[in-house]
Amino acid sequence: MHTQAPHQIAPALPPLALNRRHLLAGSASALAAVGLSTWTQGAAAQAKALPAYASWKDVNSAIVHIATTIETKRGAFGTSVITPAEQLYIRNNLPAPDASIVADRDAWEIAIEGVSKPRKLSLRELKTLGLETVAMVLQCSGNGRGFFPSKPSGTPWTVGAAGCVVWSGVPVRVVAEALGGLESGMRFMTGTGGEKLPDGLDPKSIIVERSVPAAAMADALLAWEMNGAAIPLAHGGPLRLIVPGYTGINNIKYIKQLAFTAQETDAKIMSHGYRISPPGEKGDPNQPSVQEMTVKSWINSPSPDAGLLEKGRVQISGVAFGGLQPVKRVEVSVDGGKNWIDARFVGPDLGKYAWRQFVLETRLLAGQHMLASRATDVQGNVQPQQRLENAAGYNNTSWADHAVAVKVA
Predict the structure, then answer these.
(1) CA-CA distances (angstroms) from residue 376 to 165, 265, 364?
(2) Bridge-partner residues for 296, per DSSP?
(3) What is the C-alpha separation between 74 and 299, in angstroms, rounded?
(4) 34 CB-side CA count, 13 A
(5) Of 156, 222, 287, 356, which is most buried with the most CB atoms under 10 A?
C-alpha cells in the first residue's frame, strides 16, 4: 500500500532544511510501538581516542569501539554520495601491519597463482597493466548488528559500518589475462592478507584469507587508490583486493597473494568464520558464507540524535544500495510501516555498486513518528520488513532495524 495517512503527513513540499535543535533520542515507547529494540549507542559510544594508525580520522565523526573497530556516526554521513576517507569506518580482523609497508608502495609484491604463468608482481608492475575506477559500497557484514534483540557477539554496529568510496586499480581479469589466463577447473578467487600473524599459532587458524566465486573477477580490482589518494594503511594500503557487491571481509587488505583455486580456502575465517548460523549455533562449512550483499537502505536525517523537530515541513534523507544489483526504488514511511511513499533519488548515479541518496519532503504534525525506509533492486528484491535473525548478526537487512524515532513539537 502506498498511500499517505492524512492525520500524519501532507503532500510533498519543496526541500527545506531541517530544524536541528538538540536533543532527541527515540523514546522507549515509540520504539516498542513497532517492535524495535531499545538498544542505543549511549553507553557503547563513550569517547575513546583514535588509535595511532587511524589518528588522521575525524574523531567527531567516529565511534571508537576498539582499536581495530571504528564506526561512522550516522549524523556524519551527510548528503553527498562519496564517504570521505577521514569518516570511513574501520574493521580489521588483525592489527594493521607496520607502517613501513607504505614507505615504498611500488615495491609491494603480490603472488598470482592458479594461472598459466604464475609469478610475483610488484605494485609498480601492476600499474603498467591497466586501470579502472569503481564507486562501491564497502560494508561490514555485521552492519546493523547492534539492533538485534538477541545481542549477538561482535561489534554492536548501528548503520555506521559502511561507506561509499571510489577505488582505482588494475582489473583482476586483466592481470589474469596477462599471465596466460586461468588454469582449468579454477572455480574460486582466493585472496590472502599480509598482516603479521601471531607466533605460535597455526597460520590457518588466524590468517585473513577468503574465497569468492571466480566469476567475481569480472569487476574485481587490485586497487592502490581510494577516493583519489593512495590507500591509507588503515584501509589496506598499499594494495587491496576490491570485490564490488561483496561484503567487506572479502575485500582483502594488504593483499599478498591472489590465487585461483579449485576449492575454497580451508582457513578458519572461511570455513567457520563469517557463516550465517541460526541462533545458538556455531559457524561451520555447511552454512551459507557471508559474501554477496543484499538490498538495503536507512535514514540518515533526521538522525536519532538530531533534536526536537518543529512541526511542519521536514526533509527525510538517506542512502540505499543493492549489492550486486542496482537499487531501483526507495520508499519511506513516517508511521512505522503502515503506509509507504516513494522517495526520489538525488545526486549522481555512480553505477550499480554505489549507493544512491534518496529524499522525501513532507509535513509532520506534532507527536511521535517512526520513520523507516525500504529499498527494492532492479530484480524486484525488497528489503525485508522482518529482522533476519542469526547467530552472529550478519546480513541484517530489515528496514525496521534501521528505523528512526522522532518527536515533533
Answers:
(1) 22, 33, 25
(2) 321
(3) 9
(4) 27
(5) 222
Mean pLDDT of 197-209: 96
Which residues have CB under 8 Å from 215's CB, separation 6+?
A: none
pLDDT tens digits, one per residue of 151-187: 888 999 999 999 999 999 999 999 999 999 999 999 9
Q: pLDDT digits over 346-376, tens only?
A: 999 999 999 999 999 999 999 999 999 999 9
Q: Residue 63 is placed in which grid cell? A: 565511534
Q: Where are the beta strands (DSSP E) in 15-108?
A: 62-66, 69-72, 90-91
Provide the residue type at 187 as one letter.
R
Q: What is the pLDDT of residues 386-409, one digit of tens each?
A: 777 888 888 877 888 789 999 999
* Residue 215 Cα distances to 25, 183, 190, angstroms: 44, 14, 12
| Rounded Cα distance, 166 and 327, in Å | 18
| Span 223-274, pLDDT tens digits | 999 999 999 999 999 999 999 999 999 999 999 999 999 999 999 999 999 9
Q: What is the mean pLDDT of residues 78-87?
A: 95
Distance from the first to the final alpha carbon of the chain: 28
pTM of the predicted model as reported, rounded to 2 decimal places: 0.88
Q: Is 123 exposed, middle or buried (0-12, 13-18, 19+ CB in 10 A)?
A: buried
For the chain, the farthest-separated pair of C-alpha atoms sits apart, in whole angstroms, at: 69
**Pair type for strands 255-261 and 109-113:** parallel
What is the enclosing helix (H) or strand (E) of 257? strand 255-261
CA atoms within 13 A on the CB side of 151: 5
Within 10 angstroms of residue 58's Cβ, the number of other Cβ atoms is 15
Q: Specify the DSSP element, H or E, that contains 31.
A: helix 28-33
With contact defined as beta carbons under 8 Å apart, do 267 and 256 qualify? Answer: no
Residues β-bridged to residue 242 = 221
The residue type found at 393 is G
Domain at 87-271: CATH code: 3.90.420.10
